[in-house]
Amino acid sequence: MAVEAPSATKASFGGVEFLVTSFQTRRGRRVAEYATPGATGSSVEDLGRNAVRDTVSAPLDPETFAKLTEAADKGKISTFGHPLLGSYEALIGDISGDSEGNTVNTIQVSIEFIEASAQPILLGVTISRDSAKQSADASFGTFGDLFDGIDLTLTVFDDLEGFVDSFKDAYNATSDFFESTTQAFQDLSRAAQDVVSFGQSVIDEVRNVADTIGDIANEMIDTTLAVVDGVRTVVDTVAAEVEQVYTFTTMVASDLPSILQRRFIDPLRLEEILDANGLIDPFFIPAGVALDLPL
Questions:
Q1: Domain spans of the chain?
Q2: Which numeric CATH code is attached to 2-28+48-119+127-173?
Q3: Are the C-beta atoms of residues 102 and 161 closer than 8 Å to each other?
Q4: Would you call 68 exposed, middle or buried from its count of C-beta atoms within 10 A (0-12, 13-18, 19+)?
Q5: With contact defined as beta carbons under 8 Å apart, do 35 and 27 qualify?
Q6: How many whole angstroms separate alpha carbon 72 and alpha carbon 150?
Q7: pLDDT averaged over consecutive 10-residue blocks of the chain (295 residues)?
Q8: Which pLDDT does position 245 carry in this prediction?
Q9: Distance CA 139, CA 145 (A)
């Protein structure tokens, strides 16, 4: 009878834990049926309880798969435990699986656990030839199925190992690509920083040259202004020294302020004109005196 577990349940075998997603169980009695010729019905003999057979579906990681496969190969008897199937001494009768449902880290397998008796088998028990032949055929068939399942499982495991190796190669190639890309970006960043530093140094040098030119220009302007001021002073001095004058002769006695007023000459220059003409009294200028007056 196949039973779908409501959710993954934890099971263990010989201390190795794994999750069970579904299971099948087979339990009952061993019965011998004897038919008598000419009689209706048959007689039945109870030969005892059948060994419990539980088949579980489980996703196994590579390490757990290897441990359970080793236990199956060695025919190791250990304690099997499950919350619904109970706990009993068992050996692994069959491990089988295929490529469906597998991932990088798990392989989906079906494991058959067969109840094993810890008591020794009694020798000297008489059995019929036909029963012995049937038992031998059943045993060899079971072992053949077991070995076929193991071979299939190992093949799947080899394929999974090859897939893992391919994944590692792809990961390493991707890692190398990212490392080279990162190195290229770092080189580009350093080159950009060098360009910025060179540009900044050029700007600083141009600024220094501009400041130097500005200082020279300011000195030239100051020098030019000083020269202009000197020239202006010289011109003023020369103009003062070569100021044009004309001679005015008085017809009648007069005074110098009146003469300056009539000739529109600055009265503040009275003392200057008085000294230039050698006069003493500015308020009495006799008739016939020749005066040098500025234009």
A1: 2-28+48-119+127-173, 244-294
A2: 2.40.30
A3: no
A4: buried
A5: no
A6: 9
A7: 63 95 92 84 87 94 94 94 95 86 84 79 49 62 71 83 88 88 90 92 93 93 92 77 82 93 93 93 93 90
A8: 87
A9: 10
